[in-house]
Specification:
The protein has 194 residues and is mainly alpha-helical. The protein has one domain. The chain is built from ten helices and no strands. The chain has helices spanning 2-16, 19-28, 42-49, 51-74, 81-93, 106-116, 118-135, 138-154, 159-175, 177-185. The longest helix has 24 residues, at 51-74. The chain is globular.
């Protein structure tokens, strides 16, 4: 039990690493929370700092989810990978290292699922970019990908996966509340590079 508690705490700390804040301050001298949407995730990094920074932050956010979800295997603990992963995503959304103002759960959720169900992760990646090509909205594509991942999970008959994907999709939708309003008002920015 003590080891499980330590793993959950470590997962939260890993999730709390503010990739966007680190990349922005160290390499660009900018706090991305003061620019664009004010969000610490990959999308605002792309908008604020460019493609290289956006890619670096997105990959880092995915990998911290993957690493956190892999802790039970690495430390030989009797706790489910996906349960641990949820705490990494909570850390990403509410990071202790960045005043509890974090990202929108998309990349880190993907990283958690990469550790447990890589085929689902690949499906999500393909679905996201197809949706992005069609809609030009990162936020809407993120929400639709969460919903599609949940539908996909239903066919696996893997109850822990179904439950956790439902939780992660709920996180993603909840964190995009303001974006949903902007889409309805037709004020949400569209991407121009795809």
């Amino acid at each position: 039990m003590a080891l499980n508690a330590i793993i959950i705490f470590l997962a939260y700390l890993l999730g709390s690493i503010p990739s966007g804040l680190i990349v922005g301050k160290v390499f660009y001298g900018k706090d991305i929370r003061e620019h664009g949407s004010g969000n610490l995730g990959g999308t605002n990094t792309f908008r604020t700092l460019g493609v290289k920074a956006g890619m670096a932050v997105s990959i880092a956010d995915v990998l911290k989810g993957t690493l956190a979800a892999s802790l039970p295997l690495l430390l030989d603990a009797d706790i489910h990978t996906l349960l641990v992963g949820i705490f990494a995503v909570i850390g990403h959304m509410y990071p202790i290292f960045a005043g509890f103002r974090g990202g929108k759960a998309v990349a880190t959720s993907g990283g958690v699922l990469l550790a447990y169900a890589p085929v689902l992760f690949l499906f999500m990646l393909i679905f996201f970019f197809i949706s992005l090509y069609i809609t030009k909205y990162v936020s809407l594509s993120s929400i639709l990908t969460g919903i599609a991942a949940f539908i996909y999970s239903l066919f696996t008959r893997d109850l822990p996966l179904i439950l956790v994907v439902a939780v992660l999709a709920t996180f993603v939708i909840y964190r995009h509340r303001a974006n949903i309003k902007r889409i309805r008002n037709k004020t949400e920015p569209k991407i121009k590079w795809l």
